Amino acid sequence: MKRAVFLPYLALRGSTAGAALITGVCQTYVFARVLDPHSFSLFIIIGNLGLSLWLFDLGIAKVLYVELRARFLDGKLAAADGAPSPGLQAAGVTFLYIGLAILGSAACFAVAALFGGGAGQGIEFALFFVYAALNLAWFALRNVATAVDRFLHFETLEAARRAGHLALLFALLFGLPFMTFLLASNAVWIGLFALAIQRLRAERGFALGGPAATVGALRHFARANRKNLMESGGYAAGEIFVYNYPSLLVPAAMGLGAPTIIFDTAFKIFRGANVLFSAACDLMVPGQTRAFQAGDRPGLVRATLIAAALGAVPAIGLCGLLAIWGDALYRLLLGDAAQMPPTVTPILIVLIACNWIQAVSNFLLVHTGHFTPIARAAGIMTAVMSVVAIVAAVSGIDVVRFMALYAAAYAFGAGLYGWLAWRLPLALRRPETRQ
């Protein structure tokens, strides 16, 4: 990647990743002050349900990236042999995700209206659900933009999104009605999707067609990538389980209120760190994929080491922040809503360090198409984390002990993925033949 492009991309990607981490902790800060603890807990659950829509991705976006990237590098983005264009297939995946977000929102409204606090609360829950769930469709567009080297434009839109959503979030502290916040936040989403799609259409990474053509393109994509989709789906399902089951287990087994708030705050920091590491890895994906396809091992190793070094900067900074000012940070975020136990900090530091290793490894494995080995590794991790979940559910342990068990299992997984990255893409071993 040319320096004239890399430096602005580094600045933008770093700022959006930092904003993602800030947004997570600021949402905790604001909601702890504008909502009562019971409502706060309910919105945590609704938001986690919205984010759990990633269950339906099953790695589709990454298979789309690998296919679109290969076509882009070979100069073959046009439709060929009667098959729908890659851009129309990308549209099929994106609109599938948007449709799932809308369906989930409708279901959330129906359940809340019938069994909760009436239509008003149902609308609030539905809007908050779709606000969280649209991240999945946005993730698909990010992969499309990166595949066709339009990452700089996409990051500009992402910066605007983060700024807009943060401004609306803080406006709650100054009296903005909660319903207005939800409506405006979703309006920001609509505008950004329109701008992103418009640019990608110009670059042939996205194409619009009628409903029948779009559905047909989606079916073609599924048939042509059946094996990769199955393997990627296994990997994604395992990852989704690992990252999402605690958010459902803790309130169910340990109760709403303090346990849920404590865990959600810690997990937001942990997952926020993952956003920073993902940003560091995103910067080097174009160079890694070009080097891998060209058989340039020194270039691939160099790009991967740069990704690891870039990720190490926020890892060291965040771990240092938690070690020195962790208690003050928790008090600032939570106020009187809950008190964070001091033993959470060392657990978080272990999780962040292991997540750094795993992010660098997994980005390389996924973007070079090694779906089969990571699917097997994800299956192993699912089994290990299932044991942790069963132990937590039946033993009656508190939330801190559960987090310690989770961190131990997660460290095992990070080591496994690191070993796979060394043995496969870094050794220039090609993925299994697609079917």
Walk me through what this model shows.
The protein has helices at 3-34, 37-51, 60-73, 86-115, 119-147, 151-171, 178-202, 211-224, 226-254, 258-294, 297-334, 344-367, 371-395, 399-423. The chain is mainly α and 435 residues long. The longest helix has 38 residues, at 297-334.
Q: Mean of residue pLDDT?
A: 89
Compressed to H and E, one letter per element, the order equals HHHHHHHHHHHHHH
Number of strands: 0
Find the structural class using helix and strand composition: mainly alpha
Short summary:
The protein has 14 helices and no strands. With 435 residues, the protein is mainly alpha-helical.
Kindly list the characteristics that best describe this protein:
435 residues; mainly alpha
Write the layout of secondary structure elements.
Layout: H1 3-34, H2 37-51, H3 60-73, H4 86-115, H5 119-147, H6 151-171, H7 178-202, H8 211-224, H9 226-254, H10 258-294, H11 297-334, H12 344-367, H13 371-395, H14 399-423
Helix pairs in contact: 1-6, 1-10, 2-5, 2-10, 3-4, 3-5, 4-5, 4-8, 5-7, 6-7, 9-10, 9-13, 10-11, 10-12, 11-12, 12-14, 13-14
